[in-house]
Amino acid sequence: MASWQNPVSGTSSHPHATLSSALTGKSHEKKKAEDNLRFQIELEFVQSLGNPHYLNFLAQRGYFKDKKFVNYLSYLQYWKQAQYAKCLKYPQCLYLLDLLQYEAFRKELVNTQCAKFIDDQQLLHWQHYQRKRTRLINGEHEKNQTQQGQGQSQNQQSQGVY
Q1: Do residues 108 and 67 touch, judged by C-beta distance below 8 A?
Q2: What is the pLDDT along the chain (162 residues), one digit of tens a residue?
Q3: pTM for the complete prediction?
Q4: Contact indicator for 7, 1 with CB cutoff of 8 Å
Q5: What number of other Cβ atoms are within 10 A of residue 107's Cβ?
């Protein structure tokens, strides 16, 4: 099963897919294929929003001034739902999709330096992510061990009293 298919039903998991193919006059298989294609296209586009240089390209060509395009970005917010987000390879695109909802951010993206700054921040995050994650996991592990040790000593004390 492809990652862009609904893991439960094996069908397209697009939120606005039409349930009845009879309404459109298309065969069920053709409708399913169209829904899968639309899902793939939107998946690729949403992930491309994780590239700040692509956002700069769109801003410089005036896409963010087009009300229809801005509405489309708003529509794409459904990708934040868990059933869709799990299909993403680059989850940082969701954060940038959130930022694209703000006009001030869209205007700033015309600036190449803005895109470069975002790119630098992403690279720094990726470089230090593993170290930060390991530190957090080790801290939680030590905390759990300490709590377990305290729980055992309390159990031993309570058993000695009875």
Answers
A1: no
A2: 344 444 334 544 556 554 444 555 568 888 999 989 999 999 999 999 988 989 999 999 999 999 999 999 999 999 999 899 998 888 888 999 999 999 999 998 998 888 888 877 777 777 777 777 788 888 887 888 887 777 666 666 666 554
A3: 0.60
A4: yes
A5: 13
